[in-house]
């Protein structure tokens, strides 16, 4: 019994001890869990604060970057504002300068108008004097009206030319004294507005000379050498302060090339005087003719056009020195010949005949200085004169739709001409208008009686007219200059002013044998 009691008591004590130990273990677990939760909360709080601090730092850094960009943008805006202010001041100054120039031009125009009225008044007075003299002659001479009129008109014609020339010379001298300064400024302004690099590059040739002493030899005593050279070649020779350089200016490329080659020969030879100049220029002209023939033959071979008349070959060679809207006309003709031939082959036509039509279509441009009419009509006349077929003649006459096309090759030539002219970079209209203006200036001067040669120089700002000394006297030359200038004013539009220089020279030659 006691054993059972002891065993029961031992079991109870064991259960109690076990329960106590279990309670101890459970209390320790709860304490560990609370500690872990508190540690996790502290770590989460620390992590949140760290993230918040990092976010604030990124925000501050981005804000600094945006502030820098804003400052840079503001600096750029300020620079642009300063630049605009400068441009505004510049434009204001230019506007003031233009207004001053406009006022100066208006004053000059008023002076010219006053002078013109004065000349018209004097002409009216001359007419009254002529009428009075006619009445006196009828009374004194006892001649019939027809006889008196014939004698009087002959006498008055000579007297009027002489008096008019003297009056014009007097007025020109007075105008020159009063307005030389204003005229230089007006011409300079017009040149500045109108002249361009392109014009300079296509109308002048630069010639290198060994030293500045050669400039004096080119000019000659009192300018006789340079005057003789300009008269023989029809160009303008510019000798300025530029070291070791002389400039030859002319819108006619053949004329300018002859002058350039002649001047190079004279510089190399060293003998520069009027007689030698005339000899060298004539020699160079012959060499240029041979070169033109060679260019014509080469072009015909390249285009595949055989058996052309020698005169037509020469005219085609001259086209190498002619430009149309800055496009070389000879190269343009070769291009049109190939295009026309290709199109004819595609259509099953005679390609050789088509190339011939295309090659010769612009040949009139080589002779439009010497013949009246447009280059299509001139070209057709030349081709017909030198034995070309009807289709070739018709293609030249109708490639600008001046006549109704009767042959397919005429249509092909017109199409090829348009293709060659319209390709990118082939043409510029400014140069064509410029050359046409110079040609028109020369044509106006050639229309007056007694004129032998006319040269438009200085980019059309001056026209030199060589007259026959047997037909035009000194005083009549002054009237001729005024008449040409008046005709230019009435029939042309041009920038600035055009100076008309009439030159009368008597040359007497004696031969000692």
CATH architecture of the domain at 304-427: Orthogonal Bundle
Low-confidence stretches: 183-201, 424-429
Question: Which oligomeric state applies?
Answer: single chain
Write down the Rg: 47 Å
> What would CATH call the class of the domain at 304-427?
Mainly Alpha
CATH H level of the domain at 304-427: which superfamily? Answer: Hypothetical protein af1432
Ends apart, CA distance between termini? 191 Å
Mean model confidence by pLDDT: 80
Largest sheet: 3 strands, antiparallel
Estimated helix fraction = over 70%
Q: What's the order of the H and E elements? A: HHHEHHEEHHHEEHHHHHHEEHE
Structural class determined from secondary elements: mainly alpha
Overall outline: elongated
Brief overview:
The protein is mostly helical and 513 residues long.
Can you walk through the features of this model?
The structure is a single chain. The chain is mainly α and 513 residues long. It has a domain at 304-427: Hypothetical protein af1432 (Orthogonal Bundle), CATH 1.10.3210.10. 72% of the residues lie in helices and 7% in strands. The protein contains 15 helices and 8 strands. Strands 1-3-2 form a 3-stranded antiparallel β-sheet. Strands 6-7-8 form a 3-stranded mixed β-sheet, with helices on one face. A two-stranded antiparallel sheet has the order 4-5. The chain is elongated, with a radius of gyration of 47 Å.
Question: Notable features of this structure?
Answer:
513 residues, mainly alpha, Hypothetical protein af1432, elongated
Strand and helix layout:
Blueprint: H1 2-141, H2 145-194, H3 197-203, E1 204-208, H4 213-219, H5 224-233, E2 236-238, E3 245-249, H6 253-269, H7 274-303, H8 310-318, E4 323-324, E5 327-328, H9 329-346, H10 351-360, H11 375-385, H12 390-398, H13 408-422, H14 429-446, E6 451-457, E7 462-467, H15 474-491, E8 499-504
Parallel strand pairs: 7-8
Antiparallel strand pairs: 1-3, 2-3, 4-5, 6-7
Helix pairs in contact: 1-2, 2-15, 5-7, 6-7, 7-8, 7-9, 9-10, 9-13, 10-12, 10-13, 11-12, 12-13
């Amino acid at each position: 019994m006691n054993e059972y009691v002891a065993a029961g008591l031992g079991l109870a004590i064991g259960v109690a001890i076990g329960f106590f130990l279990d309670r101890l273990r459970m209390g320790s677990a709860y304490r560990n869990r609370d500690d872990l939760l508190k540690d996790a909360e502290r770590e989460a709080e620390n992590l949140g604060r760290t993230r918040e601090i990092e976010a604030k730092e990124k925000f501050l850094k981005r804000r600094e970057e945006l502030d820098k960009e804003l400052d840079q943008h503001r600096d750029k805006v300020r620079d642009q504002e300063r630049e605009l202010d400068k441009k505004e001041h510049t434009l204001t100054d230019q506007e003031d300068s233009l207004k001053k120039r406009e006022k100066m031009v208006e004053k000059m125009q008023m002076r010219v108008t006053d002078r013109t009225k004065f000349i018209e008044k004097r002409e009216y007075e001359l007419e009254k004097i002529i009428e009075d003299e006619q009445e006196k002659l009828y009374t004194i001479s006892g001649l019939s009206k027809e006889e008196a009129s014939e004698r009087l008109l002959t006498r008055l014609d000579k007297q009027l030319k002489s008096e008019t020339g003297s009056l014009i010379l007097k007025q020109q001298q007075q105008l020159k004294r009063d307005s030389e300064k204003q005229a230089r400024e007006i011409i300079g302004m017009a040149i500045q507005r109108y002249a361009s690099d392109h014009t300079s590059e296509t109308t002048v040739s630069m010639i290198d000379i060994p030293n500045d002493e050669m400039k004096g030899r080119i000019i000659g005593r009192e300018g006789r050498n340079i005057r003789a050279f300009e008269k023989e070649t029809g160009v303008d020779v510019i000798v300025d302060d530029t070291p070791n350089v002389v400039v030859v200016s002319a819108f006619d490329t053949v004329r300018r090339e002859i002058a350039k080659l002649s001047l190079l020969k004279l510089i190399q030879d060293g003998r520069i005087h009027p007689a030698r100049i005339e000899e060298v220029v004539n020699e160079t002209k012959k060499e240029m003719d041979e070169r033109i023939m060679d260019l014509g033959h080469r072009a015909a071979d390249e285009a595949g056009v055989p058996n052309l008349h020698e005169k037509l070959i020469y005219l085609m060679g001259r086209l190498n020195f002619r430009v149309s809207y800055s496009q070389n006309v000879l190269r343009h003709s070769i291009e049109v010949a190939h295009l026309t031939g290709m199109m004819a082959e595609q259509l099953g036509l005679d390609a050789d005949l088509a190339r011939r039509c295309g090659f010769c279509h612009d040949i009139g441009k080589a002779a439009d200085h010497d013949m009246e009419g447009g280059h299509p009509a001139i070209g057709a006349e030349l081709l017909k004169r030198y034995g070309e077929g009807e289709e070739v003649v018709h293609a030249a006459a109708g490639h600008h739709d001046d006549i109704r096309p009767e042959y397919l090759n005429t249509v092909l030539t017109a199409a090829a001409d348009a293709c060659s002219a319209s390709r990118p970079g082939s043409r510029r209209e400014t140069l064509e208008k410029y050359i046409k203006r110079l040609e028109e200036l020369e044509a106006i001067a050639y229309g007056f009686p007694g004129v032998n040669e006319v040269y438009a120089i200085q980019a059309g700002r001056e026209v030199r007219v060589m007259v026959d000394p047997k037909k035009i006297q000194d005083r009549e030359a002054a009237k001729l200059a005024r008449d040409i200038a008046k005709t230019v004013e009435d029939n042309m539009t041009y920038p600035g002013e055009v100076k008309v220089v009439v030159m009368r020279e008597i040359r007497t030659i004696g031969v000692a044998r």
